[in-house]
Write a structure and sequence with these properties.
single chain; 209 residues; two-stranded antiparallel ribbon; 61% helix
């Protein structure tokens, strides 16, 4: 943990910061994960957002496979292996399942949580004043929003959540969940319009227009 308490000056003097910060490197989301013994931290950190989304998508969590797979997920690092399919095969052997069964069980769940994670991130960044763009941090924001669109479309989930209306509901659920930590979110009248414009631009790009 990093304790930030003082502001230092070039002449060697220092003064106490008006707001003192403790940077907890373990990650707050890991604490409920460890306390609850859940297969992954994602099972614990989303509440009404998960309930809202999966009520429409009905993704089977296959929790038993996740529990068996948990100790081996660190091996699924595409940057650390030359043959990811061999890794899938090895892990499947460890949990006594076929690679096809493991993928079929966890990939939809993974993408469900990607949608939850990315929409929550987009909510916080936009509420903090960030906007999707083609440069800098704005491009990161645009990329994660478009990844959400792509996953929802690929899996046939877009229609199941009622498109943009479902996304707007999901953002409201994230606000509800996060309000337990941060309080009520200030009104952002153009938020939905920003998401709608991004969807229109992404749709036109994907269709080649």
């Amino acid at each position: 943990m990093v304790f930030m308490q003082y502001k230092y000056f070039n002449d060697g003097k220092f003064e106490e910061l008006p707001v003192k910060v403790i940077d907890v490197g373990i990650g707050l989301e890991r604490i409920p994960w460890l306390l609850n013994g859940s297969p992954t931290s994602y099972f614990d950190v989303f509440h009404s957002a998960f309930e809202n989304l999966n009520k429409k998508l009905k993704v089977d969590l296959h929790a038993e496979i996740w529990k068996k797979l948990g100790p081996y997920t660190c091996r699924l690092d595409i940057d650390e292996t030359d043959d990811i399919e061999k890794v899938w095969s090895d892990i499947s052997g460890y949990v006594n399942e076929t690679p096809e069964a493991v993928k079929e069980s966890i990939l939809p769940v993974k993408e469900l949580y990607i949608v939850l994670d990315h929409t929550r991130t987009a909510l916080i960044v936009i509420q903090d004043g960030g906007l999707p763009s083609n440069v800098g941090g704005g491009s990161n924001l645009r990329n994660i929003i478009r990844r959400v669109f792509a996953i929802l479309k690929k899996n046939g989930w877009w229609e199941k959540i009622d498109g943009l209306n479902g996304l707007y509901e999901l953002f409201e659920c994230h606000k509800k969940d996060l309000s337990l930590l941060y309080g009520e979110f200030p009104e952002y009248k153009s938020f939905n319009q920003i998401i709608a414009i991004e969807y229109e631009r992404w749709s036109n790009t994907e269709s080649g227009q």
